[in-house]
Amino acid sequence: MKPVKIKIFLLGCLAIIFFLEIGLWITGVIHLKRTFGERRLNYNQDKGVYTILCLGDSFTYGIGAISEKSYPKQLEYMLWKRFPEKRILVVNGGMPTYNTAQILHDLPSNIKSVNPNLIILLAGDANSWNFWGYHEYLKGKNLFSALYNQLYRVRLYKLIKLLYGDIRNKIKIARLVKGKEYKDDHSYIFERKIEKNSKLIYKNFIPPTFIKNLPCSTRGNVHGSLDQFKNGAAVDVQNSYDHNSMGWICLEQGNREEALEWFKKGIKINDKDARSYGGIGWIYFSEGKQEKAIELFKKGITLDQKDSSCHGGMGWISFYQEKYEEAIEWFKKGVAIDSRNSYNYNGLGESYKVLGKHAEAIEWFKKAIELAPNNSSNYCGILESVIVEEKHIEMTKFLQDTVPNASLAADFIKMLNKKNNISKEILLWTKTDMEKIIQICSNKGIKMILSNYPKGNVRLSNKVKNLAWKYKIPFVDNLRIFSFLRAPGKKEEDYFYIDEHCNDRGYEMIAKNIYDVIIKEKMINEP
Q1: What is the pTM of this model?
Q2: Whole-number Cα distances in Å, 259 to 250, 267, 268
Q3: In which domain, by residue range, is 311 found?
């Protein structure tokens, strides 16, 4: 081929790649706004309203209590009572399992939507097991990470990688179902169809304790799926499946009230719908209503012995009651009923880990990861066992061979490479993200309050306290204030739910601690 023809050929290839890249960019912008996007909080704020945006994970969301008893809602009541002449809105922007990278990712859109006067940040605990976004922190830390992140900016490369992953998923599904009709297991097909979509939404909307094990591990086109099931419910009003599917999606998005309404509609259509009873059971469990949850799980099992979600629910109740052998029995029943959902495998991994059987725990967690490779809860459990058994190399190979296209697996591998420095690396990552959040708020003139957890990681607490001191930001020391529970006659169960989240009284204390700082710092002007 002559040199001129080679040049023309190469220029033609470059032109095709350029126009494909532009086309993918335009299509992506339109599609992401419609389908994926950030978890945006929509509030129509009038001028004159003092708005507080509370950001964080399940402690902000309010796991362990009903929504009206979450700390943001109780803080709002306290401020209304103190400032009856003022219009005050406290927005609960907490999302179970969110780490600082996810909060940082959604921050610009949430600031735009809510337009807050004050942001309260209680976060960082999830970074110890949810490694979503860790690769963002690594950008520029080494040559390989910098090159990889530059390559990932090329949409054509991402499209090829996505298509490759799609083909692998189809092959895996074909092997798993082994000729069975898809209609035999709607939840499994729904999980697989959604799980393989965009990398952007590979966020975990499920709490790190019991809610993390919801049977439909939704990953990907959440809004598109909502539309599909809403349309299905509208077209066939007597089809309870679309209604309870809407309930599960709403629950995974953190909307317990709307989820409850959908489950109730499903039961109204079909009062023998075990899946809807199970969904309401999970809601009650997340609100601290343990006895009601048990009643509904057992009713679901009575109605349908093959409903694995209710068996999983009973397993997690047993787990948090420290009845680990009993929990294992429930989870194994769930696995026997449905071997293609991850949440019972996760429960088995957690149970064996608590019993000190880390090698067995790793094997169960592996199965959970294989089925739901972008559910951060699965990585949460396995990390400790991998460290104890010193299986860093074996785990890395397993992930690379089994789930090579899962973004969370890639982030987990990067963290595993730190080996003995994992705890230190997590703290540095958390600190870096928090500083970026502080900088964004500072640039926009938004006041902040930093807060620590009422229990848990002392080093994380000190890191947050140091950031507050460094940037002259008011700090709420929940860890110190809650230490009174160690005094004689005090009981932790009076303030905490069985999984170490707060209950109504615990969240009231957090709200009061924040309220005291707001008043002390005169962050809201007296009338």
Answers
A1: 0.70
A2: 5, 13, 14
A3: 136-201+203-405
